[in-house]
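Table S2 (text version). Query chain:
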Amino acid sequence: MDSSRKLTQRLDIDFALQAAGLGVWELDLVTNQVLWDDRCQELFGLARHNSLSYEQAIQYIHADDANRVNSAAQWAINPQSNGLFDETFRTVGADDGKLRWVRFYGRSYFSEAGEIYRFAGVGQEVTPQIEAQQREVTIRLDSQRQQRIYEAIASSTPDLMYVLDLNYRFMYANRALLDMWGSSWEKSIGKNLLENGYEPWHAEMHEREVDQVVATKQPIRGEVSFPHATLGKRIYDYVFAPVLNEKGEVEAIAGTTRDITDIKQVEAALRTSEERFRSFVTASSDVVYTMSADWRQMNQMDGKMFLANTQEPSRDWLLKYIPTDDQTQVETAIEEAIAAKKVFQLEHRVVQADGTIGWTFSRAVPILDEQGQILEWFGTASDVTEQKRAEEALRQSEERYRYLSAELEERVKARTQALSQANADLKRSNDNLQQFAYVASHDLQEPLRKIQSFSTLLTQQLDNQLNEAAKDHLQRITAAGARMSNLIKDLLAYSRISTRQQVFGPVSLGTIVADVLTMLEWDISQSGAKISVEPLPVIKGDESQLGQLFQNLLTNAIKFVVPGQSPQIRIEYVQRSLSELPPGVKPSVEARIYHQITVEDNGIGFDEKYADRIFQVFQRLHGKHEYAGTGVGLAICQRVVENHGGAITASSQPGQGARFQVYLPA
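Corresponding structure-token output:
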């Protein structure tokens, strides 16, 4: 009965070992032979029953694992150890050459005297588990590597990259975004928009956009300003895009944001430059045109009533504007200019707007790209028809009109020299515009000087022969000429301030005002004006322009007073932060702090509905017989302030004085 029970137990143990894929092994410590069952032999790749010595068995363990396994076995049979043995290693297949991962574990048994009397255990194949672990490790390492790549890209880009959950909390923010906030990952991640420094209106706007992306599953794009921690207020272009899960549902919002402040500033500067250019083109007496790189197409032309305007691009301009006999000459000059990439310059006949034949002196400058290739041509054409007719008349009667011929030749020479200089300066936009103003003022001053000179001579030579009406007429001519001369001078001053390239440096406003008061000393004395000046700061600016600013403001304050009253003028100073600026004050350069200089008087004042009009060129609120002036002074003031990145405002009531406030960036 006992033998039957032991046999049954043995069969149960064998079945359990077989079901578990386990084999039994034992190391005979006397013979040093490895004793094992068929399963353990299979784990070592033995095709038949073999009894191996311990040293032979070690040879069928992978070379990279053999020393480790041997060391663990030697330690397990050492009485000082706990006797446990558990190693996972590779076998190389004694007979089949197949590589297997196996786990052998067991223990040593010691007598009370500490002598080992048995070392045995079980073994099993763990190749699938090890390979699965290796795949998992490989996948994890690949994933970590991919994550490092993404992190490197996100950290190196200047664009802001981030992820929001559906509760508007930041799940991720790259280094650029953290730098913009001036914060750290620990302080920012898991926080919502308000907690990361967004103003309420800004946070609400983005929350609505996130809701829209979730509802539509479509990206959304916007533009907004936000204060950078170190760079100040910046303008950003941003995109919110949905992150979809495997069910196609939005599980997060991915965002990218780009700083476009510099682009916006360049666009604004370009618009300003184009507006100035158009203004001076309008003020110039010359025809202005643009041509394609090969001159086949005239893109546009402002004919100034001399030539017919071209509002749309024209390819028949040669036939339309150039007489047949002159076309070959014009084409030859164009080909030479294109080949040499030099200024086109030619005097030739043209068909005028009324259909008659006139003469023009035409100049065009090539506009080149960074590679030196011609993009287009910018040109001007002067109406020299009258000069050509005068030359013809001079040739017919040279002796009779010798003096006139010499004078005309000198004028043509001066005109040609001035226009050649303007042609060279076209490469720099501001210098080109200033030259236009100079040419205009020069040509207008010349006939005015003659009008004034001849009216004075008539008054002196015919004084006894003129009646009172004639004398009055001559006086009116002289006065009108003087007024026109002042208008031209003021316009020239205005244009120079608008176009010349200023060089800024540290200047003391206190010193500038003191110099202006010295210059106006006679006017102050005659008017009995009382002027108080608070201490003024040192700023970065153009000393000449700032002198014109205060000279014009103080001159107006002294001039526009109620007859019989003495001017009372105060110049006050205070600093203002950007947030403290009055509504409607928009400096051309944004700064954290502004200098506010107030010039206040007790003069005749004006209706505030004209507050914007007074800064326009030639705008006057009073008759020229009441108060002298050209209406350019305040326009110059506004231009000076804009050149310095600031703003100027005016406030007043009739009869209650005027207050001008100048805001300049600190």
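Notes on Table S2: Residues 429-461 form the longest helix (33 residues). The two ends are 110 Å apart (CA to CA).
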